[in-house]
Amino acid sequence: MKVAVAGCCHGALDKMYETLELLQRRHNVRPDLLLCCGDFQAVRNEADLCCMAVPAKYRHMQTFYRYYSGEKKAPVLTVFIGGNHEASNHLQELPYGGWVAPNIYYLGYAGVVRFRGVRIAGISGIFKSHDYRKGHFECPPYNQQTIRSAYHVRNIEVFKLKQLKHPIDIFMSHDWPRSIYHYGNKKQLLKMKSFFRQEVESNTLGSPAASELLQHLKPTYWFSAHLHVKFAAFMQHQTNSKEELPKATKFLALDKCLPHRDFLQIIDVEHDPNASDSLEYDAEWIAVLKATNSLVNVTQTSWNMPENNGLHAKWDYSATEEAIKEVLEELNHNLKIPCNFTLTAACYDPSKPQKKVEPVHTINPQTTEFCAQFGLTDINDRIQQAKEEGSVRGEREEEEEEEEMDSTGSAEEPSEYNTDNSGLSSINPDEIMLDEEGGDEDLSTCSVDPSPDHPPDFSASFSDIRIMPDSMAVSSDDAMDSTNEELEKSGVSKQVEEKSLNERPLKRVGGNENGNSGIKIKRRNQAIYAAEDEDKTE
């Protein structure tokens, strides 16, 4: 089947779907599935805008609300993960995943689903060492700290994914796995993004947690976004035994959704022709969720996941074949995800814009139904309870839960990632330094730049749509200088490309050239976001 993969969407759904229509007209190719690697920005209204960690000048309503209200419907099944510029209050309603609009599915903090027999997994957010070992304690209304920590990856999600034993076909993360740049054309990457050099040479660019998952899961494909640059790599994994067949991962990072930018890729993925055309639950993942349910933590207390180090009574939470069978029997072998999308917030009305809004913490019926069906803890309900008990800010909910955590995870143990030199605490990829952008900003006040009622036709100005039959293709300017032989052996073919005459190079901005001396943005972000000002997006 044909799978379209997109980078950072930034709420520009109309542009993205128009590009798919253009693909069909020009190449007679219609994708069966669209994957988006974060910064989706499922913004429903002004309150959602206030929960998005970006400077005020980037708070634009964009077009998602049209799909949320039912005015429009996604023309292709869309599955996405969260990034670091999201309406966190909206996505938080669906910690285990769910529909944010008809035909648009969010994978949750971490998740695994199936489509036509293809197993798709992903993890939302970006890595920050100082929040990695905390629980999901944040809830709206956010403050200047929690509006950012809400989208930081947590160790429990990585732990859950590491319990998977069956092969993964496609994995999505927002930030790149650390070290992946050593398996592609690093020279070309640094030519396009010279400000990455220091982090690449010190091996601090990317997420160590994602790197751990890459080495553990060894998926066939791994897709990322975040750095707003296209990059391909091919990683041959080491085998643990002579009997184990060698595995390799084809990695691709996508650019952001903008005219004149290469943000969309088409790949052919082997699928089961007898499998359902509906999006389905993954039985092993459900079994893992049930097994790890006792590890749910909604406090700021840092603690490590169970491991075989003599300190834990149990450390293996992987699903047995019996547990998987039980899940199948519970569902009567019907794994289809119910189309139970429900409106949980008022939709943006261009004729009645709201200036002063107060985000609220919402319990989504989809999550309630999911948790009831599989006997799981509703994280948002637990946070609400903890708030009422006055224990959500760093204390255990009950003495019994504290004793349970002592038997499974300990806050006294050292983290598996050194929090002092993670390399990401000060130079996290593509994250705007909100601390220096007005820490006293009122998050309940949003200046909305509404989308036009008749958005322009972008079909003539979008850059090429890359079509890669059979397997992931790498263009000549992305060909790996050190792994050409491996790529040829893996069947990588040349991309079909139509160059846009209007394509412009990425503008480099330094110092105060961004036109606002009152806002300080990291050097990397100055270059990344320069093109956004030019194209009037985000």
Automatic annotation (TrEMBL):
CDD domains per the UniProt record, alphabetical: MPP_Dbr1_N
Annotated protein name in UniProt: DBR1 enzyme
GO annotation, biological process: mRNA splicing, via spliceosome
Pfam families, sorted: DBR1 (PF05011), Metallophos (PF00149)
Source organism of the structure: Rostratula benghalensis (greater painted-snipe)
Biased composition (Basic and acidic residues): 386-396, 486-506
Required co-factors: Mn(2+); Zn(2+); Fe(2+)
Start and end residues of each Lariat debranching enzyme C-terminal domain: 235-380
Classification of source organism: Eukaryota, Metazoa, Chordata, Craniata, Vertebrata
Composition bias type Acidic residues, residue spans: 397-406, 432-443
